[in-house]
Amino acid sequence: MEYFLEVFADIHWGAVLQIIIIDILLGGDNAVVIAMACRNLDPHMRGKGILYGAGGAILLRVILVAFAVSIMKVPFLKFCGGILLLWIGIKLLIPHDEEEKEIHASKRLWGAVKTIIVADLVMSIDNVIAIAGAAEQAPGHHQMWLVIFGLLVSIPFILGGSQIILKVIDRFPIIVYAGGALLGWIAGTLMVDDPGISPHFPNLPNLHVEGGIAGAVFVVVVGFIIARLKNSKKTSG
């Protein structure tokens, strides 16, 4: 009991508060991805998809924080991650065929969970730096526990946000394109911020913004075209 009291007294509560705030602010992106990935699931499977996807994403983020500094220095890692996120954004914009309802429910569920985890893995490359930076204010032996605590506290906000976004998407499907644009923006900024890319464009001070806009436009345009082609093929068939 005395040990836990000592640990409690030694906790850097300022760092805890910062981590929680960062998680809540950054959780908006996660909520959008989770909602978009689960929107094609049967209503009774959505809860599981959201819970499993968020749980896997949070676990991966904890692991990423431990290697955050090293990961950020690897050339072209963020660029490759951005390309992967572009593909995920486009994929989430493409509607499912009616025939896909025949697919076993568990396969669709785990497919959505896999999409959530992969997307969050890519999106978290930058986010974990902020979390790790906040944790550095605390004693070294408490840093990882603070990160885990902060991430656990953020789970209800991510889950609640996903549920709200899902309801909005059900009512206004066009909002899916806003989610796709968000993923494209994140992908574009990741790619141009890569340490193997950004040094080649020293004369472009707004490269971050331009990359984000390009990524958002790319995902929306390509996703829209593929969706239209798929719908046209379905109608003609």
TrEMBL record:
Top-rank lineage group of the source organism: Bacteria
Entry-linked Pfam families: TerC
Assigned keywords, A-Z: Membrane, Transmembrane, Transmembrane helix
Localisation: Membrane
GO cellular component labels: membrane
Main location, first listed in the record: membrane
Residue spans crossing the bilayer: 12-38, 50-70, 76-94, 115-135, 141-160, 172-192, 212-229
InterPro entries: Integral_membrane_TerC, Integral_membrane_YjbE
Membrane topology: Multi-pass membrane protein
Keyword Transmembrane helix set for record: yes
Similarity comment: Belongs to the TerC family.
UniProt name for this protein: TerC family protein
Species of the source: Turicimonas muris
